[in-house]
Amino acid sequence: MITQFIYGHPVETFAVTEKIPVADHEALRRFSRKKGTVQVFSCPLDEDAVIYGLGETMRGINKRGGRYISFNYDDPHHRDDMPSMYGSHNFFVVDGAETFGAFFDTPAKVTFDMDARGEGVLSVLCETQDLRLYVVEGESAYDVVKQFLGSIGRSFLPPLWAFGYGQSRWGYKTARDISRVAARHEEKSIPLDYICMDIDYMDRFIDFTVNRRRFPDMAGFAAGLKEKGLHLVPIVDAGIKIEPGNPVYDEGVREGYFCKNHEGTDFKAEVWPGMTHFPDFLQERVRRWFGDQYKVYTDCGLEGFWNDMNEPAIFSTEYRAKGTNPDAERGDPDQPERHIADFKDFFHRLDDGREKSNYEVHNLYGAMMTRASGEGLERLLDKRYLLFSRASCIGAHRYGGIWTGDNASTWEMLRQNVYHMPSLNMCGFLFSGADTGGFGGNCTRELLLRWLAVSVFTPLMRNHTAIFTRNQECYRFRDPQDFRTIISLRYRLLPYLYSEFMKAALRQDMFIKPLAFDFPGDGKARRIEDQLMVGESVMIAPVLEQGARGRIVYLPEPMTEVRYNREGFTCIDVGAGERTVMTPLNQVVFYIRKGKLVPVGREASNTSELDLLDVELLGSGTAYEQYVDDGYTRSCSLERCVIRRREDR
Ligand code: MIG
């Protein structure tokens, strides 16, 4: 059961799509009003209570013990104790003596103190008097999550090719650079579905342009790649360069599409292209206009995009010169405070007529950019599109996926990727993944192989790295056939992964879950954070440590242990309990639940070669319900499921 509490005059966030009954405030005694503009919610926690949720936040799957701040922020120095990331996902579930979920539906800053002092108290501080609070009661944590997912609308449905392997690097500049990446993958027989184009494909980093010298014929180039089964995925940044004569800029100024400063003129902020204006994505008419701009790319045959810098990220503003932000320089532990003055300096005009500073509605900005692009692409294309954004809040999951931003090539960040996945799923973001191999810093061969073995199971599987880091494409390392083995597993598992993703999305369920959700009565499973359930049949237990030749795996029930190597799959039945499992760098081990099946297909060099129906069934079950379609149709429904039966072994 979900109950809604309305405080003040909330800003429309579009997060919840279902009609939820509104209760009067007396019904919620925990929620108290405090001085000024701050609302406080607090509740006691029993000793064993676990807290799930909060999507893109650091630390473990159990959020207890940490302090998290919802305030979308671009900080590439990811650390365990950083309070804010690029997305704000204000839903959590307390699983203890009492089990309930709460969603703080506001785009303003919210601080979640998840018993940081260890005194058995959870408290939430909202910097606004205007918000909706949804309280979800259910039988279990998983039940609470399913009810919540049922209230926020169906996840974005990407095309099949978006589940293929993607290669990216900040630094690919020309069509030749990209052709070389394609050729090298082909030469080493490493499967590949798309290559991302970072900011250098544009003319001086200006949105909706193409650098003609570097890409003399984008449409022809894209068509040539498509013949080989490859897609191009360009980046789009939030700010529009101030450049009279550019039609997008001119129209934006003429129609008043940009955020204003307090003098009432278009706010100026420096980002990659130099001084820019920020489109006011919170307005319907602005979203429509911005979404329509993607036509320059769809006209070239492009069907996938990544949206960046939409927290929004700011280098300097018309009021604050570069390098004059003392907090930024000293690395304030409450890092979102850094640019607060900037966010208070520009204003949105809401569709209800109110004016709000960006600070007050901050977490909606990236989400509404995603919505603008998603709705635009729906108008422009007749197929499903790929879209993933950096900034987000709940609601944006209906229009696109997200990636978890500028992580680093460290083992800690690989582990964080594992923790992020179920937490993001609880908040509706099924299509997500990290920069495989790490964005900042130099990746090692071992780290990339282990990271790929995790990414095999995340919907977005993209190798991406920053400029000035060592080359991170698989073929840059010794024995590329080892990389090929891991990535081929992804393609062989796609009949299963695609089917499970689509079923989860269509049922408004999770795709990746903590063990505790599938084995709620198992006290040990409840505390395990480095193993995950992927779809209804698979459990993964990845190796996350440098130098480790294997690991200890906990099996809550007897399962089929599947080992994949160059020769293919080997299955053995293993009992419940702890087990030491050796996993060489060029192998992947995963588990199939008792009584379940996994359809595996043949190897493919990209998804266009894949036959989702040509499968063999692994595991001990008797039947599997497989979702199948052409990979791009928009009419997706569970009716597309076919029952696959397995002859007795
Ligand atoms: O200020 O476009 O997170 O993936 O490669 C950095 C360059 C801007 C940040 C993104 C990253 C991308 C990079 N961008």
Task: State the main characteristics.
9-stranded parallel beta sheet; 649 residues; binds ligand MIG; 6-stranded antiparallel beta sheet; 15 helices; globular; single chain; 40 strands; alpha+beta
Topology:
Blueprint: E1 2-7, E2 31-33, E3 39-44, E4 50-53, E5 67-70, E6 87-88, E7 91-95, E8 99-105, E9 110-114, E10 121-126, E11 131-137, H1 141-151, E12 165-167, H2 175-187, E13 194-197, H3 218-227, E14 231-237, E15 240-241, H4 247-255, E16 260-261, E17 269-271, E18 274-277, H5 284-292, H6 295-298, E19 304-308, E20 316-317, H7 326-330, H8 340-344, E21 346-349, E22 355-357, H9 358-361, H10 365-380, E23 386-389, E24 392-393, E25 401-403, H11 411-426, E26 432-433, E27 435-436, H12 445-455, E28 461-463, H13 480-506, E29 512-514, H14 515-518, H15 523-527, E30 532-534, E31 538-540, E32 550-555, E33 559-565, E34 568-574, E35 577-582, E36 588-593, E37 597-600, E38 616-619, E39 623-627, E40 641-645
Parallel strand pairs: 6-24, 12-13, 12-28, 13-14, 14-19, 19-23, 23-25, 25-26, 27-28
Antiparallel strand pairs: 1-11, 2-3, 3-10, 4-7, 5-9, 7-8, 8-11, 9-10, 15-18, 16-21, 17-18, 17-20, 21-22, 29-30, 30-31, 31-36, 32-35, 33-34, 33-36, 37-38, 39-40
The chain binds ligand MIG.
